[in-house]
Amino acid sequence: MTHRRILLIIGGGIAAYKAIELVRLLRKAGHSVRCVLTRAGEQFVTPLTLAALSENKVYTYLFDLKDEVEMGHIQLSREADLVVVAPATADLLAKMAGGIADDLATTLLLATDKPVLAAPAMNVRMWLHPATQRNVATLRGDGVTVMEPDEGEMACGEYGPGRLPEPEAIKAAIEAALAQGTIVRPLGGQPDFAPAAAEAGAEVLLVAGPVPLPTPPGVIRVDVETAREMAAEVEAGLPVDAAIMVAAVADWRAADTSAQKIKKDGSGEVPPLALAENPDILASVAKSAKRPPLLVGFAAETNDVIAHAQAKLARKGCDLIVANDVSADPMGGETNRVHIVSKAGIDSWDRLPKEAVARKLMEKIADELDTRVPLADD
Ligand SMILES: Cc1cc2nc3c(=O)[nH]c(=O)nc-3n(C[C@H](O)[C@H](O)[C@H](O)COP(=O)(O)O)c2cc1C
Prior knowledge:
By secondary structure, the chain is α/β, with parallel strands linked by helices. It has two domains: 5-181, Rossmann fold (3-Layer(aba) Sandwich); 194-372, Rossmann fold. 36% of the residues lie in helices and 23% in strands. It contains 14 helices and 19 strands. Strands 8-11-14-15-17-18 form a six-stranded mixed β-sheet, with helices on both faces. Strands 2-1-3-4-5 form a five-stranded parallel β-sheet, with helices on both faces. Strands 6-7 form a two-stranded antiparallel ribbon. Strand 17 and strand 18 form a beta hairpin. Mean pLDDT is 85; it is low at 180-191. Flavin mononucleotide is lined by residues 11-15, 38, 40-41, 89-92, 121-122, 126.
């Protein structure tokens, strides 16, 4: 990756010390870093440490005439390639979501025209509080990349989500956000593709069903439980350069749910079970006004694999179908033999380990995108 300019805003959280390590990692990778410390941030780390590590002046106050003459606050927010907030405290997230600009950090965040990535860190109750969750949802809706905090033991002794992601993971997310051209957002319940996409330098949004798998570094993950939630999150995630729709979503759901347990009444009669159709997420993304330039679907078949995949390609209106013969390679296995079906024809790959299939598919997607998506300006 070429060297880029990062404006790093450090909030007033106990994890601010990890921002020091982040600056070191970013400098080591050759990026230039300019730090802005909030007033509360200054209680945790000193401008001197950050200036020494970033080899740049550190900014703190809004109304500093000397600073304003050297570099105006609007210019400061615009000359970066990416604005990063780490640690993003509950207070900073709330101010960002509310458009408050009452100090240098929040004014820069409101004035910037550059992508913003926030790495939250706070006590588990603060993170899980509906106000914070609402603010995070608002920010994501506004296009801010908000990383999921890590889960674990906190400085305050409590346990849960709220820890600042490790500096290496923040660096990976920064590099994914800075990566040009391709923005790939795999959607669904098989995160095998998410690490391969992030490794390939894409900004990745993973909309995941209830799967007990770790979130790969650099991947933004939104967890959903129902098909309708998944459809809503996928729609909210658009526009993207490529959508990889790998989730096997149930076609049907129970039409009615009961607030109470439905008890046996001794009559031996089975209560009727009515079903309602779930949204067809792939087909609705294909028809969306924000349809991605590249839409990839999957087909797991037991017979007539290619014929079924060709029919699905036409029916769903996608660009590629990755067809998988699950009679030859069972779902839970380590290898896959896939056929890439498109209007251009059929490309049958050898049997490969699943990770290799994921990597090869990312190469295929990058090639396809090169022909469809203009590269972003530097
Ligand atoms: C010792 C200490 C640790 C704190 N750690 C955090 C934290 O990790 N996350 C957070 O959101 N707030 C934390 N706070 C509260 C924030 O410092 C406070 O909300 C402050 O106004 C945030 O300022 P900022 O918007 O400049 O980040 C902590 C406060 C203290 C006294």
